[in-house]
Amino acid sequence: MMIKKVVLITLLLPVSVAAQELSTDRPDQTEAPFVVPFRTIQIECGFLHRNEKSGKSAELPSILWRLSLSEIMEMRIITTHLKNRTGEWKENGITPVEIGFKIKVCDEKGIRPQIGFIHHLVLHRIASENFKANNYATNFRFAVQHNLSDKVNLSYNAGMEWEPYRSTGNFVYTLTSSFGMTDKLSVYVEIFGTIPEQESNIHSFDGGMAFLLFPNLQLDVSAGADFKNPSENYFISSGISWRFSTKKYSN
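Structure (tokenized):
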């Protein structure tokens, strides 16, 4: 029912930017270096189920709101409704909201790849009571993409993340390759990981596909697991992304 409503709303929104390729930051863990086109809003909504040895969690949903500020910059807001369960213990609510930006650093030219920079601030008090923290946190990463052909690209991220519940930081990395099977269907494979300052490293893999249902509407599915314990630590995800123009509202 929810997807039907989203599709209906999307079809009623302006689609003057439909000729420009819909580039999203999902379903993989790798953020794209591209910003949304000027005078557009893009919403990327994902549903995720994660199973770990210690318990289970679900994002229902996590939403990335992307608002164009200029030809080279976008504002970003991330909101997540999270459910956790460990044995008999449960928690449910909105995790701290993240707000930030993405900047296009440079376009691809010759051997130079397309590069973007992303930064978020975690607003530790803007959350459900049980998820509020005592400290702000931040994260940043560089996003890079090489177009190897018209159908294949190689992308990777590198950066740092700090959580509002901890004082230590984590180095994060991703590496993915995407393949355009048709004009509407693409698939990807990816490795990604976290290297904490004090805890054990976590290295994972995933794969999935994205389908362009309409020029401004994309559906996706993905799944992944940890290399160390794939039968215990894994996730499955699905999502929907859509973009619409704000030009008629700014005139």
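The first strand starts at residue 40 and ends at 52. Residues 2-246 form a domain with the Porin fold (CATH 2.40.160.40).
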